[in-house]
Amino acid sequence: MMRFLSIKKTIFFVSFISLAIYILFIKSELYESSSSVIIKNLESKQSDLGLSLFVSGTTSSLQDSKIVETYLSSFDELQKLDKLFGLKKHYSSEKVDPVDRLYSWSKREDFLKLYRKRLQLMYDEMSGILNIGFLHTEPKTAKAIVEQLIRDANEQINIYNKTVAQKQLSFIQKQVETNKRELEESIKALEKFQNSHTLLDPTQDAQTKHSLVAALESGLIEKRAKLNELRNYMNEESFEIIRLKHEIAEIERTLKKIRQKMANPKKEALNTYIFEYERLKNLVELNKELYKQSLLQLEAIKADLHKNSKTLLVLTKPYLPDGYAYPQKAKAILTLALILGLLYGIVSLIEAIIKEHFD
Question: Under the phi-then-psi rule, with left for phi > 0, alpha for psi from -120 to 50, and beta for the rest, what region is 128?
Fold first, then answer.
Protein backbone atom coordinates (compact mmCIF):
# COMPACT_ATOMS: atom_id res chain seq x y z
CA MET A 1 0.00 0.00 0.00
CA MET A 2 2.88 2.34 0.85
CA ARG A 3 4.34 1.55 -2.55
CA PHE A 4 1.07 2.55 -4.29
CA LEU A 5 0.99 5.79 -2.28
CA SER A 6 4.56 6.52 -3.28
CA ILE A 7 3.78 5.88 -6.98
CA LYS A 8 0.72 8.11 -6.78
CA LYS A 9 2.69 10.98 -5.27
CA THR A 10 5.42 10.48 -7.83
CA ILE A 11 2.92 10.63 -10.70
CA PHE A 12 1.35 13.87 -9.44
CA PHE A 13 4.74 15.39 -8.63
CA VAL A 14 6.20 14.49 -12.05
CA SER A 15 3.05 15.81 -13.74
CA PHE A 16 3.34 19.10 -11.87
CA ILE A 17 7.06 19.48 -12.62
CA SER A 18 6.59 18.58 -16.30
CA LEU A 19 3.70 20.99 -16.82
CA ALA A 20 5.46 23.72 -14.84
CA ILE A 21 8.58 23.32 -17.01
CA TYR A 22 6.37 23.50 -20.12
CA ILE A 23 4.71 26.70 -18.88
CA LEU A 24 7.96 28.33 -17.75
CA PHE A 25 10.31 27.40 -20.55
CA ILE A 26 8.45 25.93 -23.55
CA LYS A 27 5.07 27.67 -23.79
CA SER A 28 5.20 30.51 -26.35
CA GLU A 29 5.37 33.97 -24.85
CA LEU A 30 2.80 36.04 -26.73
CA TYR A 31 2.84 39.85 -26.95
CA GLU A 32 -0.51 41.58 -27.34
CA SER A 33 -1.11 44.81 -29.21
CA SER A 34 -4.64 46.21 -29.36
CA SER A 35 -6.64 49.20 -30.50
CA SER A 36 -10.11 50.60 -29.80
CA VAL A 37 -12.17 51.78 -32.76
CA ILE A 38 -15.70 52.95 -33.42
CA ILE A 39 -17.59 52.82 -36.71
CA LYS A 40 -18.72 56.32 -37.63
CA ASN A 41 -21.33 57.17 -40.24
CA LEU A 42 -19.95 60.17 -42.16
CA GLU A 43 -23.48 61.18 -43.18
CA SER A 44 -24.59 61.48 -39.55
CA LYS A 45 -26.35 64.74 -38.67
CA GLN A 46 -24.88 64.77 -35.17
CA SER A 47 -22.83 67.89 -34.60
CA ASP A 48 -21.30 67.04 -31.23
CA LEU A 49 -18.73 64.38 -32.09
CA GLY A 50 -17.53 64.11 -28.52
CA LEU A 51 -20.96 63.06 -27.27
CA SER A 52 -21.81 60.89 -30.27
CA LEU A 53 -18.76 58.69 -29.67
CA PHE A 54 -20.01 57.51 -26.30
CA VAL A 55 -23.76 57.14 -26.70
CA SER A 56 -25.33 53.72 -26.77
CA GLY A 57 -24.56 51.71 -29.88
CA THR A 58 -27.36 51.76 -32.43
CA THR A 59 -28.65 48.78 -34.34
CA SER A 60 -26.73 49.98 -37.42
CA SER A 61 -23.50 50.29 -35.42
CA LEU A 62 -24.00 46.82 -33.95
CA GLN A 63 -24.60 45.36 -37.42
CA ASP A 64 -21.52 47.08 -38.85
CA SER A 65 -19.37 45.88 -35.96
CA LYS A 66 -20.57 42.30 -36.39
CA ILE A 67 -19.77 42.53 -40.10
CA VAL A 68 -16.24 43.68 -39.22
CA GLU A 69 -15.83 40.91 -36.62
CA THR A 70 -17.02 38.25 -39.06
CA TYR A 71 -14.71 39.47 -41.81
CA LEU A 72 -11.63 39.77 -39.57
CA SER A 73 -12.23 36.23 -38.34
CA SER A 74 -12.60 34.85 -41.86
CA PHE A 75 -10.15 32.83 -43.94
CA ASP A 76 -10.12 35.64 -46.52
CA GLU A 77 -8.52 38.00 -44.01
CA LEU A 78 -6.17 35.26 -42.81
CA GLN A 79 -4.92 34.78 -46.39
CA LYS A 80 -4.17 38.51 -46.66
CA LEU A 81 -2.25 38.53 -43.40
CA ASP A 82 -0.42 35.34 -44.35
CA LYS A 83 0.90 36.98 -47.54
CA LEU A 84 2.02 40.08 -45.63
CA PHE A 85 3.40 38.51 -42.43
CA GLY A 86 3.98 34.82 -43.26
CA LEU A 87 1.74 33.57 -40.48
CA LYS A 88 1.62 29.95 -41.66
CA LYS A 89 5.41 29.75 -41.82
CA HIS A 90 5.62 31.35 -38.38
CA TYR A 91 3.04 29.00 -36.84
CA SER A 92 4.98 26.04 -38.28
CA SER A 93 8.32 27.21 -36.84
CA GLU A 94 9.94 26.46 -33.49
CA LYS A 95 8.93 29.92 -32.27
CA VAL A 96 5.53 28.40 -31.53
CA ASP A 97 5.32 25.75 -28.79
CA PRO A 98 4.66 22.13 -29.85
CA VAL A 99 1.04 22.16 -28.62
CA ASP A 100 -0.05 25.09 -30.82
CA ARG A 101 2.39 24.51 -33.66
CA LEU A 102 1.21 23.62 -37.18
CA TYR A 103 2.66 20.47 -38.74
CA SER A 104 2.81 19.03 -42.23
CA TRP A 105 -0.40 17.11 -41.57
CA SER A 106 -2.26 20.14 -40.17
CA LYS A 107 -5.39 21.14 -42.08
CA ARG A 108 -6.50 24.56 -43.23
CA GLU A 109 -9.08 24.50 -40.44
CA ASP A 110 -6.25 24.10 -37.90
CA PHE A 111 -4.54 27.16 -39.35
CA LEU A 112 -7.76 29.17 -39.11
CA LYS A 113 -8.45 27.93 -35.59
CA LEU A 114 -4.99 29.01 -34.40
CA TYR A 115 -5.41 32.42 -36.09
CA ARG A 116 -8.75 32.97 -34.37
CA LYS A 117 -7.15 31.95 -31.08
CA ARG A 118 -4.58 34.75 -31.54
CA LEU A 119 -7.16 37.29 -32.73
CA GLN A 120 -8.80 39.30 -29.95
CA LEU A 121 -12.18 40.93 -30.78
CA MET A 122 -14.59 42.43 -28.25
CA TYR A 123 -17.57 44.70 -28.90
CA ASP A 124 -19.12 46.90 -26.21
CA GLU A 125 -22.81 47.33 -27.03
CA MET A 126 -23.24 50.23 -24.59
CA SER A 127 -20.60 52.48 -26.17
CA GLY A 128 -20.42 50.92 -29.66
CA ILE A 129 -16.62 50.56 -29.26
CA LEU A 130 -14.89 47.61 -30.92
CA ASN A 131 -11.57 46.41 -29.45
CA ILE A 132 -9.22 44.75 -31.93
CA GLY A 133 -6.14 42.93 -30.63
CA PHE A 134 -3.65 40.32 -31.77
CA LEU A 135 -1.18 37.99 -30.05
CA HIS A 136 2.22 37.24 -31.56
CA THR A 137 5.61 36.11 -30.38
CA GLU A 138 7.12 39.35 -31.74
CA PRO A 139 5.76 42.68 -30.38
CA LYS A 140 6.46 44.65 -33.60
CA THR A 141 4.61 42.08 -35.69
CA ALA A 142 1.66 42.11 -33.26
CA LYS A 143 1.40 45.91 -33.63
CA ALA A 144 1.76 45.78 -37.44
CA ILE A 145 -0.94 43.11 -37.73
CA VAL A 146 -3.40 45.17 -35.66
CA GLU A 147 -2.74 48.20 -37.90
CA GLN A 148 -3.41 46.02 -40.96
CA LEU A 149 -6.59 44.63 -39.40
CA ILE A 150 -7.89 48.18 -38.92
CA ARG A 151 -7.11 49.11 -42.54
CA ASP A 152 -8.78 45.97 -43.87
CA ALA A 153 -11.84 46.45 -41.64
CA ASN A 154 -12.22 50.06 -42.79
CA GLU A 155 -11.98 48.96 -46.42
CA GLN A 156 -14.39 46.05 -45.97
CA ILE A 157 -17.15 48.06 -44.26
CA ASN A 158 -17.25 50.42 -47.25
CA ILE A 159 -17.05 47.53 -49.75
CA TYR A 160 -20.13 46.09 -48.04
CA ASN A 161 -22.00 49.40 -48.24
CA LYS A 162 -20.94 49.91 -51.86
CA THR A 163 -22.12 46.40 -52.72
CA VAL A 164 -25.52 47.24 -51.23
CA ALA A 165 -25.53 50.55 -53.14
CA GLN A 166 -24.61 48.71 -56.35
CA LYS A 167 -27.62 46.42 -55.97
CA GLN A 168 -29.81 49.43 -55.25
CA LEU A 169 -28.36 51.14 -58.32
CA SER A 170 -29.22 48.17 -60.52
CA PHE A 171 -32.79 48.19 -59.19
CA ILE A 172 -33.30 51.95 -59.51
CA GLN A 173 -31.86 51.97 -63.06
CA LYS A 174 -34.53 49.47 -64.08
CA GLN A 175 -37.11 51.59 -62.27
CA VAL A 176 -35.95 54.71 -64.11
CA GLU A 177 -36.30 52.94 -67.47
CA THR A 178 -39.77 51.69 -66.53
CA ASN A 179 -40.91 55.13 -65.35
CA LYS A 180 -39.47 56.76 -68.47
CA ARG A 181 -41.29 54.29 -70.72
CA GLU A 182 -44.59 54.80 -68.89
CA LEU A 183 -44.19 58.58 -69.10
CA GLU A 184 -43.56 58.44 -72.85
CA GLU A 185 -46.56 56.15 -73.35
CA SER A 186 -48.85 58.45 -71.33
CA ILE A 187 -47.65 61.49 -73.34
CA LYS A 188 -48.33 59.66 -76.60
CA ALA A 189 -51.81 58.71 -75.37
CA LEU A 190 -52.55 62.35 -74.54
CA GLU A 191 -51.27 63.51 -77.94
CA LYS A 192 -53.37 60.87 -79.71
CA PHE A 193 -56.47 62.02 -77.81
CA GLN A 194 -55.84 65.67 -78.72
CA ASN A 195 -55.20 64.87 -82.39
CA SER A 196 -58.19 62.53 -82.80
CA HIS A 197 -60.63 65.06 -81.32
CA THR A 198 -58.84 68.19 -82.62
CA LEU A 199 -58.84 69.52 -79.06
CA LEU A 200 -55.77 71.03 -77.51
CA ASP A 201 -57.47 71.49 -74.15
CA PRO A 202 -61.19 70.55 -73.83
CA THR A 203 -61.30 72.33 -70.47
CA GLN A 204 -60.52 75.67 -72.11
CA ASP A 205 -62.93 74.82 -74.92
CA ALA A 206 -65.64 74.17 -72.35
CA GLN A 207 -64.90 77.47 -70.62
CA THR A 208 -65.20 79.23 -73.98
CA LYS A 209 -68.52 77.52 -74.66
CA HIS A 210 -69.80 78.41 -71.19
CA SER A 211 -68.90 82.05 -71.81
CA LEU A 212 -70.67 81.90 -75.19
CA VAL A 213 -73.77 80.31 -73.65
CA ALA A 214 -73.84 82.97 -70.96
CA ALA A 215 -73.57 85.72 -73.58
CA LEU A 216 -76.31 84.14 -75.76
CA GLU A 217 -78.62 83.66 -72.78
CA SER A 218 -78.08 87.27 -71.77
CA GLY A 219 -78.88 88.42 -75.35
CA LEU A 220 -81.92 86.09 -75.44
CA ILE A 221 -83.30 87.65 -72.26
CA GLU A 222 -82.85 91.15 -73.67
CA LYS A 223 -84.56 90.29 -76.96
CA ARG A 224 -87.49 88.59 -75.22
CA ALA A 225 -87.92 91.64 -73.01
CA LYS A 226 -87.86 93.90 -76.06
CA LEU A 227 -90.41 91.62 -77.85
CA ASN A 228 -92.82 91.88 -74.91
CA GLU A 229 -92.37 95.65 -74.93
CA LEU A 230 -93.13 95.92 -78.69
CA ARG A 231 -96.23 93.77 -78.33
CA ASN A 232 -97.75 96.47 -76.16
CA TYR A 233 -98.16 98.85 -79.11
CA MET A 234 -97.40 96.81 -82.27
CA ASN A 235 -99.21 94.14 -84.22
CA GLU A 236 -97.85 90.57 -84.35
CA GLU A 237 -97.51 90.91 -88.11
CA SER A 238 -95.26 93.94 -87.88
CA PHE A 239 -91.76 93.78 -89.28
CA GLU A 240 -90.03 94.52 -85.96
CA ILE A 241 -91.85 91.75 -84.06
CA ILE A 242 -91.27 89.17 -86.84
CA ARG A 243 -87.57 90.08 -86.96
CA LEU A 244 -87.22 89.73 -83.16
CA LYS A 245 -89.00 86.37 -83.19
CA HIS A 246 -86.60 85.17 -85.89
CA GLU A 247 -83.56 86.33 -83.92
CA ILE A 248 -84.88 84.70 -80.71
CA ALA A 249 -85.48 81.40 -82.53
CA GLU A 250 -81.96 81.53 -84.02
CA ILE A 251 -80.41 82.15 -80.61
CA GLU A 252 -82.42 79.29 -79.09
CA ARG A 253 -81.26 76.89 -81.84
CA THR A 254 -77.65 77.96 -81.32
CA LEU A 255 -77.96 77.44 -77.53
CA LYS A 256 -79.46 74.02 -78.06
CA LYS A 257 -76.62 72.93 -80.36
CA ILE A 258 -73.95 74.18 -77.94
CA ARG A 259 -75.59 72.47 -74.94
CA GLN A 260 -75.88 69.21 -76.86
CA LYS A 261 -72.18 69.34 -77.64
CA MET A 262 -71.39 70.06 -74.01
CA ALA A 263 -73.55 67.27 -72.53
CA ASN A 264 -75.43 64.74 -74.59
CA PRO A 265 -76.05 61.20 -73.23
CA LYS A 266 -76.65 59.82 -76.73
CA LYS A 267 -73.14 60.59 -78.03
CA GLU A 268 -69.72 61.68 -76.81
CA ALA A 269 -70.06 65.19 -75.49
CA LEU A 270 -67.57 67.80 -74.33
CA ASN A 271 -67.87 66.76 -70.68
CA THR A 272 -66.82 63.22 -71.67
CA TYR A 273 -63.79 64.66 -73.46
CA ILE A 274 -62.95 66.74 -70.38
CA PHE A 275 -63.01 63.71 -68.06
CA GLU A 276 -60.85 61.65 -70.44
CA TYR A 277 -58.49 64.58 -71.00
CA GLU A 278 -58.10 65.17 -67.26
CA ARG A 279 -57.44 61.46 -66.70
CA LEU A 280 -54.71 61.38 -69.36
CA LYS A 281 -53.24 64.67 -68.16
CA ASN A 282 -53.13 63.49 -64.52
CA LEU A 283 -51.50 60.24 -65.66
CA VAL A 284 -48.81 62.23 -67.45
CA GLU A 285 -48.21 64.37 -64.34
CA LEU A 286 -48.04 61.27 -62.11
CA ASN A 287 -45.58 59.50 -64.41
CA LYS A 288 -43.55 62.69 -64.70
CA GLU A 289 -43.27 62.93 -60.89
CA LEU A 290 -42.36 59.23 -60.55
CA TYR A 291 -39.70 59.63 -63.23
CA LYS A 292 -38.33 62.72 -61.51
CA GLN A 293 -38.12 60.98 -58.12
CA SER A 294 -36.43 57.91 -59.59
CA LEU A 295 -33.84 60.15 -61.28
CA LEU A 296 -33.12 61.88 -57.97
CA GLN A 297 -32.69 58.49 -56.26
CA LEU A 298 -30.42 57.36 -59.08
CA GLU A 299 -28.13 60.37 -58.68
CA ALA A 300 -28.05 59.93 -54.89
CA ILE A 301 -27.05 56.25 -55.18
CA LYS A 302 -24.40 57.10 -57.79
CA ALA A 303 -22.94 59.61 -55.35
CA ASP A 304 -22.89 56.95 -52.60
CA LEU A 305 -20.85 54.65 -54.84
CA HIS A 306 -18.04 57.20 -55.10
CA LYS A 307 -17.64 57.99 -51.43
CA ASN A 308 -16.92 56.19 -48.18
CA SER A 309 -20.06 56.67 -46.09
CA LYS A 310 -18.54 54.98 -43.03
CA THR A 311 -15.13 54.89 -41.45
CA LEU A 312 -13.36 53.38 -38.46
CA LEU A 313 -12.35 56.11 -36.05
CA VAL A 314 -9.33 54.96 -34.06
CA LEU A 315 -9.86 55.93 -30.41
CA THR A 316 -6.63 54.29 -29.17
CA LYS A 317 -3.81 53.49 -31.58
CA PRO A 318 -2.07 50.09 -31.63
CA TYR A 319 0.91 50.16 -29.28
CA LEU A 320 4.23 48.31 -29.06
CA PRO A 321 4.03 46.06 -25.98
CA ASP A 322 7.00 45.96 -23.59
CA GLY A 323 6.27 42.55 -22.09
CA TYR A 324 4.40 39.42 -23.04
CA ALA A 325 0.72 39.10 -22.08
CA TYR A 326 0.37 35.30 -22.26
CA PRO A 327 0.95 32.98 -20.57
CA GLN A 328 0.59 34.46 -17.11
CA LYS A 329 3.12 32.04 -15.70
CA ALA A 330 2.66 32.60 -11.95
CA LYS A 331 -1.11 32.39 -12.26
CA ALA A 332 -0.89 29.34 -14.53
CA ILE A 333 1.45 27.44 -12.14
CA LEU A 334 -0.72 28.32 -9.13
CA THR A 335 -3.81 27.13 -10.99
CA LEU A 336 -1.96 23.96 -12.02
CA ALA A 337 -0.97 23.29 -8.37
CA LEU A 338 -4.57 23.77 -7.20
CA ILE A 339 -5.98 21.49 -9.91
CA LEU A 340 -3.43 18.72 -9.30
CA GLY A 341 -3.90 19.08 -5.54
CA LEU A 342 -7.65 18.76 -6.01
CA LEU A 343 -7.20 15.70 -8.22
CA TYR A 344 -4.81 14.18 -5.67
CA GLY A 345 -7.39 14.72 -2.94
CA ILE A 346 -10.16 13.16 -5.03
CA VAL A 347 -8.00 10.09 -5.85
CA SER A 348 -7.01 9.73 -2.18
CA LEU A 349 -10.67 9.97 -1.13
CA ILE A 350 -11.71 7.31 -3.63
CA GLU A 351 -8.81 5.13 -2.47
CA ALA A 352 -9.87 5.49 1.19
CA ILE A 353 -13.49 4.61 0.37
CA ILE A 354 -12.43 1.50 -1.53
CA LYS A 355 -10.05 0.46 1.28
CA GLU A 356 -12.77 0.94 3.91
CA HIS A 357 -15.21 -1.06 1.82
CA PHE A 358 -12.86 -4.05 1.55
CA ASP A 359 -11.96 -3.90 5.25
Answer: left
